[in-house]
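Protocol step 4 of 5: obtain the predicted structure for the target chain.
Materials: sequence only (see below). No template structures provided, no constraints applied. The aim of this step is simply to have a reference model before the mutagenesis design in step 5. Sequence pasted as it appears in the construct record:
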Amino acid sequence: MKKFLVAIMAVLFSAPSFAQYSSGGFSLSESTLYYGIRLGANFSTLTGDYFDDMGTRVGMNLGGVIGIRVSDSTPVFLESGLYYASRGAKEGKSTLTTHNLEIPILIKYGIQATDDIAVLPYIGPYFAYGLGGKFKHEVSTPLGTVELQKDDTFDYMNHFDMGFKIGCGAEYNKLYLELGYQFGVTNLLKEEISDDGAHNGSLYVNFGVNF
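Step 4 output (structure tokens):
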């Protein structure tokens, strides 16, 4: 793990500046196309009565993005990409995890905060598909004891999720940092499990580099 983190940092600091090509840093008026990598953490939970006793679970984000300027007169960019995100919920010994592929479609607006820093607020939808996951939860046995049962998450939940992301990024030379929140609007809970709805909610922070 230590060698892996060192390798990531080496890539980040040796990469060419996103500011020279795209929406960040020093050349908002000249940028057209950019791409980048993202690595970060999310703090996710599930809303709805069925999971109301479960709290926040910490997961990982990893992805690549590509963006293009959509206006010659203003620094407005359209960004998409492909992410892996581990999300879910947790409370005590009960843990629900999902491993997702996610495609966001974001509108970003570049603001030159200083000579060295660009600020990029954004909003847009995301589309996700759950590849797998586990639901560990306590169940009562006929003998009156409690055991930890392990099930496939998608025995309870639907694979597809759609929602919206809102956040703000900042770029300094090669480096990019963002903080945002995403909320699902599709009901994840299968109808045969319960009539209660369940939706994703996730606060996230990502660090990366833009080329």
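Step 4 remarks: The chain has a mean pLDDT of 85. The two ends are 25 Å apart (CA to CA).
Proceed to step 5.
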